[in-house]
Amino acid sequence: MKVLLQRVARAAVRIEGVRVGSIEEGLLLFVGFGKNDTAADMLPLARKVAHLRVFPDKHGRFDRSLLDTDGAALVVPQFTLYASTQKGRRPDFSEAMAPAVGVELFDAFIEAVRSTGVRRVEAGKFGADMQIELVNDGPVTLLITTSE
């Protein structure tokens, strides 16, 4: 599993022009699932995201977490995180999880993030063509994987 985490001042996701989720200060989480991921991966990664100290303290050091700041999370499915560009000019997505299982894990990850105590969790829709708007704060962007 991979999560591309971005600290944001605000973010929103739209489907066919309709806003389906939005947050103010918090984390935008692009989430991708590999074909070997399982439901057991969801809670440990959700806890890592909720407790990762990526927000500044009064001295500007990364010393506060999403939970410490009472921030929100916007979770967006992103199978392209598993793209391989090693051969040719077209990305290969063979390492990404099949959609039928991926949608279940996406829903499980959203619930896992909620279970950590994050006050507000919004989400995109698995398999939808989405438009994402964001104001990156910092910028702070981290790639987190289940192998870390």
Keywords for this structure?
two-stranded antiparallel sheet; 148 residues; single chain; alpha/beta; D-tyrosyl-trna(Tyr) Deacylase, Chain: A; globular; 3 helices; 8 strands; 6-stranded mixed sheet
Give the secondary structure arrangement, pairings included.
Blueprint: E1 2-15, E2 18-23, E3 26-32, H1 42-51, E4 55-56, E5 62-64, H2 66-69, E6 72-77, H3 99-115, E7 120-123, E8 130-145
Parallel strand pairs: 3-6, 6-7
Antiparallel strand pairs: 1-2, 1-3, 1-8, 4-5
Helix pairs in contact: 1-3
> What coarse outline follows from CA principal-axis ratios?
globular
SSE pattern:
EEEHEEHEHEE
- The tally of domains stands at 1
Tally of DSSP helical segments: 3
CATH topology: D-tyrosyl-trna(Tyr) Deacylase, Chain: A
**Stretches with pLDDT under 50, minimum 5 residues:** none
**CATH class categorisation:** Alpha Beta
Care to describe what's here?
- With 148 residues, the protein is an alpha/beta fold.
- The protein has a single domain (2-134), classed as 3-Layer(bba) Sandwich (D-tyrosyl-trna(Tyr) Deacylase, Chain: A).
- Helix content is 21%, strand content 39%.
- It is built from 3 helices and 8 strands.
- It has helices spanning 42-51, 66-69, 99-115; strands spanning 2-15, 18-23, 26-32, 55-56, 62-64, 72-77, 120-123, 130-145.
- Strands 1, 2, 3, 6, 7 and 8 form a 6-stranded mixed sheet that branches.
- The longest helix has 17 residues, at 99-115.
- The protein is globular.
- The termini are close together.
